[in-house]
Design goal:
The protein has 119 residues and is mainly beta. It contains one helix and ten strands, in the order ββββββαββββ.
């Protein structure tokens, strides 16, 4: 079973998959005596930090094409509910380094990383 799917297509398993749960605040601030006045408007916004330490050109193209859209459906294991879940996500900045190019032109990449962020 794949660690995650984009639009129902299994992606290659990454080396690192870090679930992150965030809250969203609106108009929160600290008073003069540093007490927090918080207005939380949404809880448990899911994010995933994804890292491929080494990835083939074919797998890199597969993942980049899958996460290229403005939004996509992500299927993943939800650590909070202990179930497989589906949601609408987008991908943040995508970073990758070229490791080497073989004599035959085959490219190898390293440190491909991005975040998947829930809408």
């Amino acid at each position: 079973m794949a660690l995650y799917k984009v639009d129902s297509v299994s992606m290659p398993d990454p080396d690192e998959w870090k679930p992150i749960l965030n809250d969203a605040d609106q108009g929160s601030f600290r008073t003069a005596n540093a007490k927090l006045k918080r207005k939380r408007v949404r809880t448990d916004i899911r994010k995933f930090a994804v890292v491929y330490k080494y990835i083939t050109a074919t797998d890199l193209a597969t993942v980049l094409s899958a996460i290229d859209g403005e939004s996509f459906t992500l299927t993943f294991y939800d650590v909070k509910t202990n179930t497989e879940t589906t949601g609408t996500f987008y991908a943040s900045q995508k970073d990758v380094e070229t490791l080497k190019v073989d004599a035959d032109g085959t490219r190898h990449y390293k440190n491909f990383s991005f975040r998947l962020i829930e809408y």
